[in-house]
Amino acid sequence: MRSTKRRLNAIVNNSTMAIFLMDDRQQCIFMNAAAEALTGYRLEEALDRPLHDVVHHQRPDGSPYPLAECPIDRAFPERERMQGEEVFVHKDGHFYPVAFTASPILGDDGQPIGTIIEARDLTAEKARDAALRESESRFRNMADHAPVMMWVTDPSGYCSYLNRQWYEFTGQTPAQAEGFGWLDATHPDDRQRAQDAFVVANAERRSFRVEYRLRHASGAYRWAIDAASPRFGDDGTYLGYVGSVIDIHERREAEERLALSEEQLRLALEVAEIGQWDVDQATGRMFWPTRIKAMFGISPDVPVTLDDYRDGVHPDDREKTLAAYDSASDPHRRTLYDVEYRTIGKEDGVVRWVAAKGRGLFDAHDHCVRVIGTAIDITERKAVEIRLQQLNEQLEQEVARQTAERNRVWEMSPDLLAIMGFDGFLKAINPAWETTLGRDAATLLAMSFREQVHPDDHLAVQAVMERLLQGDKVERFEDRIAHADGSWRWISWTLVPEGDVFYAVGRDVTQEREAAHELLQAQEALRQSQKMEAMGQLTGGVAHDFNNLLTPIIGALDLLQRKGVGGEREQRLIDGAIQSADKARLLVQRLLAFARRQPLQPAAVNVSRLVEGMAELLASTTGPQVRVVLEVADDLPLAKADANQLEMALLNLGVNARDAMPHGGTLRISATRDSVREARGALKRGHYVRLSVADSGTGMDEATLARAIEPFFSTKGIGRGTGLGLSMAHGLAAQLGGALTINSREGIGTNVELWLPVSVQVAEAETAASPPASVATLRGLVLLVDDEAIVRASTADMLMELGYEVVEAESAEEAIAFVADGTTPDLLVTDHLMAGMSGVDLAFALRDTLPKLPVLVVSGYANVADLSPELPRLTKPFKASDLAASLALIMSMASPAATRSDDGGKTK
Fold first, then answer.
1. Rounded to whole angstroms, what are the CA distances from 99 to 38, 39, 96?
2. Would you place residue 83 in the very low, low, confident or very high pLDDT band (cuts 50, 70, 90)?
């Protein structure tokens, strides 16, 4: 018994199959050496432990492996033999696939008392299967580009693959050709023979070669050679056949002609015994019929010897031919004399091909007495064979050329060509990848898709992978791929699945997308520009009409104040109304500045007074969360600026500062005197008033700071900003000869500085305006033209108060009619913008008749493009004192007045 047990243990321990014995508790009681090697555990470590604890304690993802999911353990309670595949965990932590068989061990009472489990490591087998699939994929790709027809069968003989050349040649579809459908393209007379050749070879698993006629796509049948060999796996498993079919129609026709020629020769030999030769070894005498002599270029009546034979063989074939003859006549070898050689005609020098066969005749003493045989002229057949060989060589060269062409396309294509795996890694790439993405091929092949693709595109890539897994072709799919320099390149892909991989062609469309993005930005900028233009036109029109409304109001209030109408209370109310009207006039001027209806009019501006005057408006604009702080130097000189434009710039900067402080903060506006000793960029050498607008807001990064003064550039989002505030302020400073500078840091705030040149003029506000010149000596007839009745009436009252007689006209055409009827005014006071003819055109029209006529143009806004600089003008709304001052200035001007020259120009 002990001897039997030892032998049994020796057999089990020497088995290459891992064997485990489990008791009735399903705990390990025995492991052979193969099981220890398979699991990494020694028997002592596994004893009295469930097999689940040894090989199934966790899944590959690290999660616990529930006992209920272990199929091996079901063999015991179910009393059934179980087999299948599992994933085991080695002691060192790596996972590996196994094939197992688990069988219950039954006691004498038929109840299970344990389990025997056999397991086999499938790692190498799985790797071989994967390599085989990869090899087959590459074979299919190569076969589809081969110039010959190729096919593959499975072990049962079922045709599982035919390459593209087969379908192009026969015109069959895959559904028609696969399986045994390829026989349908075989000529009916050859079909059974071709099928039998394949079936017999498949049964014996040997190579075969058969010729038959194959139907072309045109309907004609052409001769073809079908040659194939069986395939075997590394373990000797029979896998089926792989074969190729070559069109040999031209060669077959040539061979048929050759066969006919040989048949004629055979018949001729049978009738006339031509081609038989006989050599007497003892005497050296030879029997050569005329036909054989002709093969050696010898006339029929010329006797021959062995020397004629030896000397007639081509030098390149002589050694092998004579050696074959000697071997046939050698009593120890007695081989068949069977050679093909060339001859050189003794008399004509012609090279011919001869196929000769013969045997030696030996006597009782093993002496060769004669050598008898036949010879055939095979020159024509050899020519065909040589031609066929040349065709084969040409075919090989063509295959090599097409392969080289494919490789050249792969190497030289500017597109990204690749073979990609569904495992998330590239399998092969062309050089364009390195050029486009700036990484070497080894790095790219080592990186997964997720590492290369932009994170925002991962979901889209996953969706495309699922489509490819379903066999769908994907075109014009775009995602972003990482470049070595940290940028992202947009790639447009065409993807075609093929087995375990898919083929990809990608084109870099980054520049195209950037151009499209720039176009969208330009279109958005154009829309903003059009919106601003429309707002400007609307604002300008409203401001102009508001000026017309303010003119009679301010005029009436001014008259009431000057007349001292009412008591102290009434005068206080009138004074308050005048102040409100003046503020309204200032608001209209700002609206006109926003609408670009006010030309840039540089003057000496008191920046201190302007900033203090804007304090209330800035405070109301920025809101209660922003604290506005003013810091203006006491000795601030006058600055060269346009007050209206400067106010608008200061307001825009204040709004920008408010938006940069969404949770509140401090807006600090300061004005100081500063000098620049050396030019700094756009800031030239000189003396300046530096107006600073600083906030404690979010600040700007370097990229935003670099583009801050670009027109229409805004970080506030669509509908929250025009992107023109800083660009307008920058343009204003540049036109005045100054500059705009910006200092900003993220999280700290922004400081915008307007550098305004110190003015060399004296500010109007600081000069003591002398009383209007006496107009008593200037009184006369005034032609007043305005299409607004209330404005015209208010202005007429002011003129009459100044002592003028007034003739009113509601249009330029009516004024011209008055003059034509004999009215001769001493002064023309006209509105500028009226229906029909404008005030400027009216002035020059009347000067054709009255060349010395003084003119005062009154307008709600002054546009340089519309108003002639030669004509004095007064801006609405105005008081009687403003009108009197303008008239006094006009009347004090030297004569003669401006007139229109003969050629239509304007002169003084």
1. 12, 14, 10
2. confident
Q: Residue 896: is the preceding peptide bond cis (ω within 30°)?
A: yes
Question: What is the four-CA torsion angle of 636, 640, 641, 646, rounded to 10 degrees?
Answer: -30
DSSP label at 877? S
Considering the domain architecture, whether residues 698 and 804 belong to the same structural domain is answered as no
Which CATH number fits the domain that encloses residue 435? 3.30.450.20
| pLDDT tens profile 43-74 | 898 898 887 778 876 777 778 777 667 767 66
Flag whether 564 is in a domain: no
Same domain, 744 and 794: no
Residue 373 vs residue 721, higher pLDDT = 373
Q: Which helix (H) or strand (E) holds 578?
A: helix 568-594
Smallest Cα–Cα separation from 855: which of 818, 896, 904, 820?
A: 896
- Separation between Cα atoms, residue 665 and residue 622, nearest integer Å: 10
- Read off the pLDDT of residues 807-840 as tens digits, 9 standing for 90 and up: 999 898 998 888 888 888 988 999 888 888 888 8
CA distance 99 to 117: 10
Residue indicated by tokens 């620049």: 676
Task: Give pLDDT, residue 902.
Answer: 37
Alpha-carbon distances, residue 271 vs 259, 264, 276, 354 (angstroms): 18, 11, 12, 21
DSSP 775-790: -GGG--EEEEE-S-HH
Task: Name the one residue in this structure whose structure tokens are 């050749």.
Answer: 197
How would you classify residue 837: left for phi > 0, otherwise alpha for psi between -120 and 50, otherwise beta? beta
Task: Mean pLDDT check: name the lowest of 197-206, 265-274, 387-396, 794-803.
Answer: 265-274
Give the C-alpha separation, 299 to 308, whole Å. 12
The residue behind tokens 């070559």 is: 246
pLDDT in tens, 605-635: 888 888 887 777 778 777 888 888 888 888 8
Cα–Cα distance measured from residue 275 to residue 259, given in angstroms and rounded to the nearest whole number:
17
Q: Which helix (H) or strand (E) holds 505?
A: strand 501-508
Domain boundary among 762, 797, 813: 762
